[in-house]
Amino acid sequence: MATAINWTANIQVAGGPKFAINGSQAVEAYEVIDVSIPDTASLPSGDTATKVTIQPTGGSLTFLLITADSYAADLSYTVDADTTDRMIDAPQLLIGPGATSLLDTGLTSLSFKHNSSDPVSLKILVGRDATP
After folding, report:
1. What confidence score (pLDDT) does residue 2 get?
2. Would 37 disulfide with which of 12, 26, 31, 112, CB 3.0-4.6 Å?
3. Are 132 and 73 in contact (CB under 8 A)?
4. Which comes out higher in pLDDT, residue 104 or 49?
5. Domains of the chain by range and CATH?
6. pLDDT tier at 132, thresholds 50, 70, 90
7. Arithmetic mean of pLDDT, 51-65
């Protein structure tokens, strides 16, 4: 049975236009992931990032929200085997299969890294179709 992730955003340009948008994304499954990302120097020898499983193989990601307790300048992630670093300098929100496909249509995991001395706490909300 499908459920919905409801979302709302209020965006305003200083001295300019305002945008109030909202919607609902239907999903068959969702997961909230709370994870602490240690600095890269603290990882076991040979590891360069902290891998976080986002969804099982074959899933269809339709919603992804990544928030952090600190947006350090060097906080980033890669998608599965892709080596392209994607910076996290603010909350990231991808809604719908068109937006989530910008990462990778077969996305299963994200690998996070940063070089700050303190760990960074992430909260990740994933919405997906559970049937292929």
Report:
1. 85
2. 112
3. no
4. 49
5. 28-129 (2.60.120)
6. low
7. 87
> 72 near 124, Cβ under 8 Å?
no
Q: What distance in Å separates the CA atoms of residue 19 and residue 74, rounded to the nearest whole number? A: 30
Please give the full DSSP string across 96-132, using - where no structure is assigned.
Answer: SHHHHTTT-TT--EEEEE---SS-EEEEEEEEEES--
Residue labelled with tokens 């952090």 = 68
Residue of higher predicted confidence among 58 and 107: 107
- Residues in CB range of 128: below 8 A, 6 or more apart: 27, 28, 29, 30, 55, 59, 60, 61, 62, 63
Query: Three-state SS for 42?
Result: helix
